[in-house]
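Q: what sequence does this backbone want?
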């Protein structure tokens, strides 16, 4: 038998083949059989190429016999290395010979010892060149099987030479892609829904972003997609097709799931040896972190951070790969080969891909793929709460990073997705609330970049305000932030849209008076509405100012201060028209005209702010915004206000009535002064209707004067009452009443003090021939000389007013001298308050002007007081 083995020569003929076939059949044990095929099998395969068909038929019989015996004898070794050498070095190897070579290489490689398998790996790499895909995959499967026995020492040049395939880039990419497919192998079969079966078998080519038809690509992810011919079939493998799965499992020659796990770990350890660049192997590790076996995930995460740092995620190569694995090739590749099809990824893989999508600025600017990712993540089958949250972050990157022209083209699709989230994620869970919160903010950011899309969309604004009533506090903060951004987009809204917006904001600030609305408080709605008014409408818009004025009486302090801060800003000289704003305020009063006059239509604080703001509008309108004098110096501006009132006396009548309604109920100092100011102008207008109004309300002025509890209000109301009385000579009985009140020591303090002030002002307005003038002067001086200290301030004001109006004559010289002496004592004494001393100094100044012969004495007293006093306030008054 040994001699016959030595005589095996190449090539074999039919007679030699028959002879050796008999020897194979007659082998007594496995060792003889193994030794025979060790020499015979390589020569036999080589001889196939040179012989006839009859010879090949005979060879098939030989192979059948060999296969039967080898398959039943696992210990029999096949000459794998010799077959590989033939397979690798043969230039013209027929398909017949190649198939049988691969068959025995595949059969024999698994029987080799691990060390021998490792030694054959370089030879397997060499045999990959110029082979069919099926043969390449089978050979690469053998390499993968041997990887678990290779001990790689990182950063060794020897490894790169043996396994790096540096001189064969095509084979290297083919091998790395095969390793990636092995890593993607699932451990179980999953059922998926029907998908489009339309395929093209043309050459694979990537779609340029600018040339991709957005509508066609997006319809596949939307519920209202056009119907196409579909066929229900199974797609159980994420990022793989069923055909690819079958090829890979056949190549690695195992159905054992534990063995598949070991192969994946071996691949990762092999790739971790720095044989290939980070850009070539990054997706092997990224996808391995999504594996369902712990050992694979652990091996991948060991080096994933080091690899991701070295990778540029803005590279179009990586961006395209991210989209391809996430969406599948049907949405990312326009024309694809059937063998290269990849299904979309599952939930586990998408969770691992998203961090790198978010890192990539470029990925968020590639349309339509970025929109496809958004829709698939939000409304696709393979999604969950975390993926939805990631997708909203990705949408935020799109809004921030995309060029404006590109963003405008897809802004409606993005907004449609956001609105759908708000309409579908309605659960009250924490996760759903987080999704809605981020969605609200993203709508605001989108509106800031694409304002034209939102300028006339009041529907969204209304939806946001309604959401403020139902969402939790954290979500409400995000809605308020979104409304601030949305307000920027609606600054340029049309007139009709702004009118609708004003109605909406008015409803938020002034809710209906129903029992239900009164029992539920929504301060966040009111605050958002006030902020919205500030940001959208100009400062000269009447309706928006009316809304802010209404908010000045809000129960929430933050809302009140926010509204006031925007209304009364000194930097802004652009105020609404006085007449238009007054008409708007009065129109709301007329709607509630059935309410009694003793009940204010508006809240007292709102009423007060309306009066202040109306007066400021009046002053600003008088000077057309050119005057910078402080608004407290009204006297010098009355002539300009008079010109405005003269244009329309009806408006002025309504203005006075508006002031009067408030002042009679709320005794406010400044409002009383504004009323006095308006009445002075009203008398100068010589309008009968106005004069009739003043006379009809004389009793109201008296009540305001005598029953005001605040000192400053009492002073202005006394001045007002005195001025009206002085204009009507028939009101002598009213003066007599004031005198009686002053003389009655049992009268209330407020009434006596108000009467003293009113009498002083009235006497200053009377003619010098009037009997009440002398009587009033003497009465006031007598009370002053009687040292009634509680009334000293009002007496000083009244006597000072008489002196200012030059009401004293030579008959009063003795009283005036005594008065000056007492005032000098009061200025020097430490028992008097600064306020009384200031009024005393002011009165001396009036007397110095009125009595020129006493002016030198008064100046000496003031000069001496200036030296003696050490209080800066009094020195400034002197």
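A:
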């Amino acid at each position: 038998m040994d001699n016959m083995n030595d005589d095996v020569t190449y090539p074999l003929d039919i007679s030699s083949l028959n002879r050796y076939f008999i020897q194979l059949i007659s082998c007594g044990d496995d060792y003889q059989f193994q030794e025979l095929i060790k020499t015979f099998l390589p020569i036999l395969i080589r001889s196939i190429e040179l012989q006839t068909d009859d010879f090949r038929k005979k060879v098939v019989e030989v192979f059948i016999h060999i296969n039967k015996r080898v398959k039943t004898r696992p210990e029999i070794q096949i000459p794998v290395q010799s077959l590989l050498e033939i397979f690798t070095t043969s230039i013209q190897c027929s398909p017949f010979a190649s198939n049988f070579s691969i068959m025995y290489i595949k059969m024999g490689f698994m029987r080799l010892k691990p060390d021998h398998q490792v030694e054959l790996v370089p030879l397997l790499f060499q045999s990959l060149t110029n082979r069919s895909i099926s043969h390449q995959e089978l050979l690469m499967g053998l390499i993968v099987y041997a990887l678990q026995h290779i001990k790689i020492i990182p950063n060794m040049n020897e490894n790169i030479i043996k396994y790096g395939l540096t001189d064969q880039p095509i084979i290297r990419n083919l091998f790395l892609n095969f390793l990636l497919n092995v890593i993607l192998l699932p451990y179980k079969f999953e059922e998926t829904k029907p998908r489009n079966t339309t395929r093209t078998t043309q050459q694979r080519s990537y779609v340029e972003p600018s040339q991709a038809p957005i509508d066609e690509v997006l319809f596949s992810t939307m519920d209202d997609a056009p119907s196409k011919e579909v066929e229900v079939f199974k797609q159980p493998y994420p990022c793989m097709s069923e055909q690819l799965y079958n090829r890979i499992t056949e190549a690695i020659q195992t159905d054992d799931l534990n063995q598949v796990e070991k192969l994946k770990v071996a691949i990762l350890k092999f790739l971790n040896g720095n044989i290939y660049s980070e850009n070539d192997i990054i997706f092997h590790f990224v996808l391995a972190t999504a594996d369902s076996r712990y050992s694979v995930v652990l091996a991948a995460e060991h080096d994933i951070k080091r690899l991701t740092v070295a990778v540029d995620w803005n590279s179009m190569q990586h961006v395209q790969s991210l989209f391809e694995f996430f969406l599948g090739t049907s949405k990312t590749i326009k024309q694809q080969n059937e063998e290269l099809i990849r299904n979309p990824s599952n939930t586990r893989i998408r969770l691992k891909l998203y961090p790198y999508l978010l890192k990539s600025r470029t990925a968020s600017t590639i349309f339509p793929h970025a929109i496809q990712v958004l829709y698939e993540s939000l409304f696709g089958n393979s999604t969950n709460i975390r993926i939805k949250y990631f997708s909203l972050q990705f949408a935020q990157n799109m809004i921030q990073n995309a060029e404006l022209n590109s963003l405008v083209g897809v802004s409606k699709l993005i907004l449609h997705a956001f609105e759908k989230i708000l309409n579908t994620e309605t659960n009250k869970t924490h996760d759903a609330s987080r999704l809605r919160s981020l969605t609200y903010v993203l709508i605001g950011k989108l509106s800031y970049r694409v304002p034209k899309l939102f300028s006339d969309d009041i529907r969204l604004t209304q939806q946001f305000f309604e959401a403020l009533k139902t969402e939790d506090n954290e979500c409400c903060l995000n809605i308020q932030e979104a409304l601030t951004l949305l307000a920027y987009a609606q600054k340029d809204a049309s007139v009709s849209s702004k009118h609708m917006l004003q109605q909406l904001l008015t409803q938020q600030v002034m809710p209906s008076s129903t029992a239900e609305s009164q029992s539920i408080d929504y301060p966040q709605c009111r605050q958002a509405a006030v902020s919205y008014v500030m940001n959208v409408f100009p400062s000269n818009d009447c309706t928006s100012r009316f809304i802010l004025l209404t908010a000045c009486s809000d129960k929430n302090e933050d809302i009140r201060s926010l509204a006031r801060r925007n209304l009364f800003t000194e930097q802004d000289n652009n105020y609404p028209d006085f007449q238009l704003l007054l008409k708007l305020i009065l129109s709301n009063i007329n709607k509630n005209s059935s309410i009694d006059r003793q009940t204010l239509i508006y809240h007292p604080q709102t009423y007060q702010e309306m009066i202040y703001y109306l007066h400021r509008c009046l002053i600003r309108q008088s000077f057309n915004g050119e005057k910078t004098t402080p608004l407290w110096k009204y006297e010098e501006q009355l002539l300009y206000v008079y010109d405005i009132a003269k244009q329309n006396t009806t408006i002025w009548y309504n203005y006075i009535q508006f002031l009067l309604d408030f002042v009679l109920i709320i005794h406010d100092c400044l409002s009383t002064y504004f009323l006095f100011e308006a009445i002075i102008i009203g008398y100068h207008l010589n309008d009968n209707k106005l004069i009739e109004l003043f006379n009809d309300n004389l009793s109201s002025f008296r009540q305001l004067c005598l029953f005001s509890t605040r000192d400053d209000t009492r002073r202005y109301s006394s001045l007002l009452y005195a001025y009206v009385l002085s204009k009507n000579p028939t009101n002598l009985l009213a003066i007599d009443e004031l005198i009686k009140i002053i003389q009655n020591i049992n009268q209330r303090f407020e009434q006596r003090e108000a009467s003293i002030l009113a009498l002083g002002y009235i006497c200053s307005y009377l003619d010098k021939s009037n009997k009440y003038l002398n009587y009033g002067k003497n009465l006031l001086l007598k009370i002053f000389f009687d040292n009634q200290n509680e009334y000293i301030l009002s007496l000083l004001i009244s006597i000072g007013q008489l002196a200012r109006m030059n009401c004293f004559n030579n008959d009063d010289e003795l009283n005036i001298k005594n008065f000056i002496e007492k005032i000098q004592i009061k200025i020097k004494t430490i028992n008097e308050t600064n306020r009384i001393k200031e009024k005393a100094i002011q009165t001396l100044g009036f007397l110095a002007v009125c009595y020129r012969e006493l002016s030198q004495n008064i100046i000496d007293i003031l000069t001496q007081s200036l030296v003696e006093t050490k209080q800066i306030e009094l020195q400034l008054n002197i």
